[in-house]
Fold:
Amino acid sequence: MGKMIVLAAVMAAATPLSQAASIEAGKAKVAQVCAAFPENYRQGFVRYHAANFPESKQVKVYYANEVAIRAAKNGTRLPDGAIILSEIYTVKLDDKLELAKDARGIFVPNALVSHAVMARGACHKPQDEVNFLFTMKELTDAARR
Structure:
């Protein structure tokens, strides 16, 4: 069985032009480490969760590929080929200049500042005992809907 690694592509949140360049550089870094960045993930992946991070004034939106969804639905460990990706956004402000929330209480995304990618594959460092996925419950819930 393959091993798990977390590949994080951290980008600076400066101007939109430098931010876009930083995001592209981060994607390239992910590809250098072990896995090609899944460019069309919004079409082929399932959005399964969003979480507020008030300390950093960010919201993270989580996506999983079909391999991860199938494993979660079946209650099995994430196999080789499973990919979890998160988009990390700054948060819009409301009229009172407070962090804006949607009807579910989730922060309203503003500007994309980075991605984080988690993949399973044979090239990854040993992590046999755990999936290293803080959102496994949410992934399983979404897969079983």
User: Anything to note?
Assistant: The longest strand covers residues 109-121. The chain has four helices and five strands.
